[in-house]
Automatic annotation (TrEMBL):
Protein name: EcsC family protein
Origin: domain of life: Bacteria
TM helices/strands, residue ranges: 86-107
Biased composition (Basic and acidic residues): 7-28
Keywords: Membrane, Transmembrane, Transmembrane helix
Natural source organism: Brachybacterium ginsengisoli
Chain intervals for the UniProt region annotation (Disordered): 1-32
C-alpha cells in the first residue's frame, strides 16, 4: 500500500485537507490547533512513525544501511534521497495528468503525499546519521528541514541553534510557545500557498499533459532542496 492510496482512503486525512483548503481560499491564517496545525502533526507522525504497510523513517534508514550503506553512511543517505525523489516525481506527474479537470481533487492528496514522503526522507537521513527520532527536539528539527533554506532562521526564531543537545532543549522548554507549534505554523504557511488553487504556480499544472511534466519537475526540485537542508541540519554524530 503506497502513501498515495492510503491518504485517499483515510477519511480523517481527507477531511483535514478539505478544512485546510477552505482556510486557503478564505486567505485566513491558521490559528493554533486549527486545521493546518493538525495536518502538520499528522504529516510528522505518519512520515516518521509510519502506518500500516507504510514504512517508518527508522525502517527506511535500516534498509538503506544494508551492504555498503552500513560501512559508509553517505551511501545510505544517497539511497534514501534517491528513493524519495522517485516517489515525489511520480506523485507530481500523476497529479497533473488530468489538468484542470482533476487538479482540485488530486491536489490535496498530492500535497499531503509530498510532505509525508519528505518528512520520512529527512527522518531517515537523521537516523542514519545517529539521531534519535523519538527525541522531541529531533522531531521539531525534522519539520524545520521541510522549509529548505529557511530552516536555520526558523529554528533560531524558536530558540534552537544549529547544535542539538540538552542546552538547546532547556531553552526550548523556557519559551512561551512550543517550538513544535511555531515550526508547524511556518510549514502551515507553505501548505496554504500550495492548497490555494488560485496560485500562479498552478496555472501550468492545470494544462493536461504539461501539468504532469511541470508537477513532476517542481516536486522533484523542491525535494532536492529539502534533502540539502536535511544534510545540513543533521550533521553526522561524532
Amino acid at each position: 500500500m503506497g502513501i498515495f492510496s492510503m491518504l485517499r482512503r483515510d477519511e480523517s486525512a481527507r477531511s483535514t485537507a478539505r478544512e485546510a483548503m477552505k482556510e486557503a481560499r478564505r486567505g485566513d491564517q491558521a490559528p493554533s490547533g486549527g486545521a493546518l496545525e493538525k495536518i502538520v502533526t499528522m504529516i510528522r507522525d505518519l512520515g516518521l512513525d509510519g502506518k500500516l504497510a507504510y514504512s517508518s523513517a527508522a525502517d527506511i534508514a535500516q534498509h538503506a544501511r544494508r551492504g555498503r550503506g552500513k560501512r559508509r553512511p553517505e551511501v545510505a543517505v544517497r539511497r534514501i534521497v534517491r528513493r524519495h525523489r522517485w516517489g515525489v516525481t511520480a506523485g507530481g506527474f500523476v497529479t497533473g495528468l488530468g489538468g484542470f479537470l482533476t487538479l482540485p481533487i488530486l491536489l490535496p492528496t498530492n500535497v499531503l503525499e509530498f510532505y509525508v514522503q519528505a518528512t520520512r526522507m529527512v527522518g531517515a537521513i537523521a537516523a542514519v546519521r545517529g539521531y534519535d527520532l523519538e527525541d522531541e527536539e529531533v522531531r521539531v528539527r525534522v519539520l524545520a528541514a521541510l522549509l529548505g533554506e529557511e530552516s536555520g532562521d526558523v529554528l533560531k526564531n524558536v530558540g534552537l541553534g544549529p547544535v542539538a543537545g540538552a542546552a538547546a532543549r532547556g531553552v526550548a522548554r523556557s519559551l512561551p510557545v512550543s517550538p513544535q507549534s511555531q515550526v508547524a505554523g511556518a510549514i502551515g504557511g507553505r501548505l496554504l500557498r500550495r492548497f490555494g488553487l488560485r496560485s500562479a504556480r498552478l496555472f501550468g499544472k492545470a494544462i493536461p499533459g504539461l501539468g504532469a511534466v511541470l508537477g513532476a519537475v517542481t516536486d522533484r526540485a523542491q525535494l532536492n532542496r529539502i534533502a540539502k537542508s536535511a544534510r545540513r541540519s543533521f550533521p553526522p554524530v561524532a
